[in-house]
Design a protein that fits this description.
The complex is a heterodimer of chains A (388) and B (366). Chain A is built from 11 helices and 8 strands. Chain A is of the alpha+beta class. In chain A, a hairpin with a 3-residue loop joins strand 2 and strand 3. The termini of chain A are far apart. The chains are: A alpha+beta (388), B alpha+beta (366). Chains A and B meet through helix 7, helix 8, helix 9 and helix 11 of A and helix 7, strand 10, helix 8, helix 9 and helix 11 of B. The structure holds flavin-adenine dinucleotide (2 copies).
Chain lengths: 388, 366
Amino acid sequence: MSDGQTDADFRAGLRDWLEANCPEQMRDSGTSESAICWGGKNWEFSSPEQKLWLERCAAKGYTVPTWPVEYGGAGMTRDQEKVFHEEMNRINARSPLQSFGIWMLGPALLHFGSHEQKLEYLPPIARGEVRWCQGYSEPGAGSDLANVQTYGEDKGDHWLVNGQKIWTSYADKADQIFALVRTDRDAKKHLGISFLLIDMEDAGVETRPIKMISGISPFCETFFTDVKVPKDRIVGTPNRGWDVAKYLLTHEREMISGSGALESGGRALGAVLTDTLEQLDATLKADAMRCEIDALAMGLTLERYKDQAEAGQGAGDASAMLKYMGTELNKQRHELMMSAGGSAALEWDGDVGNRAGDWLRTKANSIEGGTSEVMLSIVSRRVLGLPA
Amino acid sequence: MTEEETMLADMARGFLDGAAPVSAFRKMRDEGLTHDAALWKEMAEMGWAGVLVPEEAGGSDMGYAAANVIAREMGKTLAVSPFLSTAVMAATALRQVSDARANAALAKIASGDVTYALAVDEGIKHDPDATAMEARADGNGFRLTGKKTFVVDGAMADRLLVLAKTADGLTLFDIPADRAGITRTQSNMIDARDAAKIDFADVEATGEDVLGQVDNAMTVLRPALRAGQAALAAEMAGLSAGAFDMTVGYLKERKQFGTEIGRFQALQHRAAHLWCETELTASAILNAGRMMDSDPENAELAVSLAKAKATATATLAVQEGVQMHGGIGMTDAYDMGFYMKRARVGAEWLGDYSYHAEKVAASRGF
Ligand SMILES: Cc1cc2nc3c(=O)[nH]c(=O)nc-3n(C[C@H](O)[C@H](O)[C@H](O)COP(=O)(O)OP(=O)(O)OC[C@H]3O[C@@H](n4cnc5c(N)ncnc54)[C@H](O)[C@@H]3O)c2cc1C
Ligand SMILES: Cc1cc2nc3c(=O)[nH]c(=O)nc-3n(C[C@H](O)[C@H](O)[C@H](O)COP(=O)(O)OP(=O)(O)OC[C@H]3O[C@@H](n4cnc5c(N)ncnc54)[C@H](O)[C@@H]3O)c2cc1C
């Protein structure tokens, strides 16, 4: 972006580019599981247009608009990113790519990675070539995440990793995993963890899908048996992985919180309910109004925190607030949508689509990325300063 | 908030901590006073009375977002002033009319010489459209007969903006509060502030007294009500913050079972939840201020969202405030009760949660 460019020029340029480059088939906002590309070696494009759209966006850096150009982004400012989203929404364009690489690892690398690491890992994420998964949770380390026991034994030029992760979303589809691994068993629990990058094709890595109550199998158990991880496959310093892990979590939480937020331009709960409005009782409508009010305020809050982030004030610990409020609201919304759907919502893939599956899936929102209770504890200690 | 807004907030805080702490309100309450003329004069000197008055008329013309910032700081320590009725609502109404008389009136608001009250409500709920009070045509003028209730600042105001029915609609009158036929009775309000019931018995009004056009009150009144609702939401957000800070402070200090009660997770999580609600509310209020400044015609959704959210949050903040203080929260000697009572009045004034929820719903396709 040249400095002399005016806002109006910027918008007009984007608009023209989108008109010329966004395939018709990609202008439906995309709501189904496979509508939006997750990238990676194993990704099967749902249509040639999905592939084309990804390639065109990646060439312009539009899959990660605010990342620096040298790392695969478009170097947009926050205000330009807003314009970008507005223009995308205007034509109902699907997001060209979504991934844990974009939401989680990317921001962590941008903050903690060396220049070489950024050059190595970020562009493939931006182009959708490499898909990452998140190896944090273990059977004995959920809310108490720092209790991870997966162990990396120091073997000079590499760590020899053994242990088990659980609830690893899309581990069976990912090319790489970023994992929290204990590399010092004698240190205090937060001070003996390293943030390692492991190839899912390495010998000794195995995944087993787990089926969810919503009927799909998005997450897995992940096992590591004598996996060799070279010493340069680490973000940050050895045994200081907790800092990276926490920083990444603030981004993950902000991302998840978006589920419960509404932009004033977004589809209102009211609009969803209108389909059946005549058949609904006043109490249900009143509950929906409350939810709508909170969701609008939530949307404004997310925007406010993003605006602050550019001025150098990241959401930090307040991301726990965003995550808690956003996910609780999203659950409420889906409860209301189920009620509004009545018996039509009780069938898998019935007249109202997969509403039941979506509803069940939202129940994980207040668990994944840190539970609501953990979020409240973070707020009470770090924001309010109440004694631990 | 912008840097300028932060500076304004800091300045307001500094002034109010000295001139209008909660203890000052307590003193007024104990002495049965509902207005502090000297304090209002000081606020006028700082440009607060003229916050929405154009510079040509001697105002500081800082805009709606700035007015919200000031209202919020006032709310934190329960500062008593005619800011909302006069500086926000009356000034906004007068600004919709650009004639010499309105400009002169605005100048008097900015200087702090004249205060106003909005005489709109007649029933137990805010509902301007249901106005029954009549302004009967009489020669070139009108005769006003009827009753108004919950006229905030109505007992002490110098002038009244009165909404009444005329032949083909509603008309807004700007008249002195001591005009013949007007009887004001101050209500004994739970928040110890000024509100009045006002009786109009064949009160004379001329065409000169009409603000805006006959039968077309809403062009002038609607923006004023919106501005008031936004600023009241901001005041309530300040009030919530004040009550919340007291509560969190108490949680850190009060010991039971050999430790600070703030160590108990049952209280921690409720306090954390309350803080989250105050953050959502703050966003809604900022947005309302921005919309009022940039696109007032389309600010209804933003303002109603802010007032609804602020009402719900303040209600929660004061309930948790009293509860988490235990027995002491119930005492008159402790300030928390003041916050609870002001929150209840704020909840009703200019439309309660349901009133504004309905407006949000209407503009969101319910
Ligand atoms: C759909 C889904 C996808 C996921 N994807 C991933 C992934 O990709 N990678 C990954 O690493 N993990 C993933 N997770 C795991 C997720 O991060 C954990 O489930 C979560 O951190 C909670 O841990 P837990 O399941 O062990 O529950 P527990 O920690 O055992 O919690 C059980 C209950 O106790 C409560 N609790 C625990 N401690 C406290 C406390 N101190 N105070 C109050 N209450 C407490 C919790 O809030 C919860 O309600 C995923 C989870 C789900 C559901
Ligand atoms: C109107 C009124 C009449 C009363 N009449 C009598 C009477 O006749 N005789 C009499 O003896 N007493 C009386 N009391 C006192 C009353 O029983 C106490 O106020 C009450 O037991 C709470 O104690 P506290 O005020 O010290 O609050 P605290 O114990 O200090 O409590 C403060 C807050 O902390 C919370 N809290 C405290 N400990 C915990 C914990 N472990 N976990 C979670 N939360 C906790 C409380 O629930 C409360 O919200 C009266 C009180 C009132 C308000």
